[in-house]
Amino acid sequence: MEKTRCYIVGAGDFCESVLPEKSDYIIAADAGYTALISRGIHPDVVIGDFDSLGAVPDHPNAIQSSAEKDDTDMMLAVKFGLLLGYTHFFINGGLGGRLDHTYSNIQTMAYLTDHGATGRLCNNETCITAIKNDKYSFSSDEAVTGKKIAVFCHDKTAKGVTLKGLKYSLENATLTNNNPTGISNEFTGVDASVEVKHGVLIIVWDN
């Protein structure tokens, strides 16, 4: 496998600041194909039931699924990337539009962590990732003073949560999934990190 990252595009809000690189394996999830082609970007494969596109696209690697399925088109694309052996994912066009699809894409971030992979879900305003028993770091260039960051527990509890370099710090704390105490934090212009020892965290920050 020569390419290093799986770059997946859906039909939601497109993040113009992170375009695919030559080293990316590019998957279009259904109408994400239109978003890519309109920008002169040709995916390696197109996956979905193609209800949004209205027809199977004229692409040599188009994989059509049934419209009656358990997985979203985005999840099908993620599973395909995992099957190919990718462990680093960037998902564009997975935010905005229908709230249920946005939430399902956030759950997909947690799915990646359960399968030994990392993912980032972005549009022009927001980025989201998930970590499991792990640490996520931000450089001072990313952690611009005043930009918002929030941390949510995705399990029933997340234990050993430590936040450093943020306006409101935590040390070895426990978060729960029914109390959003990790919302409305801020970067302070220095290197920052979010760590959890036991559990899954969803991290949301200003792009």
Query: Which range best describes the helical content: under 10%, 10-25%, 25-40%, 40-55%, 55-70% or over 70%?
Result: 10-25%
Strand content bin:
35-45%
CATH superfamily of the largest domain: Thiamin pyrophosphokinase, catalytic domain
Please give the number of β-strands: 14
- CATH topology grouping of the largest domain: Rossmann fold
Taking the alpha carbons of the first and last residues, their distance comes to 30 Å
The main sheet orders its strands as 4-3-2-1-5-6-7-14-9-12
Largest sheet: 10 strands, mixed
Shape: globular
Mean pLDDT: 92
Description:
There is one protein chain. By secondary structure, the protein is α/β, with parallel strands linked by helices. It folds into 2 domains: 5-124, Thiamin pyrophosphokinase, catalytic domain (Rossmann fold), CATH 3.40.50.10240; 130-206, Jelly Rolls. It is 16% helix and 35% strand. It is built from 3 helices and 14 strands. The chain has helices at residues 32-37, 73-83, 99-114; strands at 5-9, 24-29, 45-48, 62-64, 88-92, 118-122, 126-132, 135-138, 148-153, 157-164, 170-176, 185-186, 192-195, 200-206. The chain has a 10-stranded mixed β-sheet with strand order 4-3-2-1-5-6-7-14-9-12. A 4-stranded antiparallel β-sheet has the order 8-13-10-11, with no helix packed on it. The radius of gyration is 17 Å and the shape is globular. The mean pLDDT is 92.
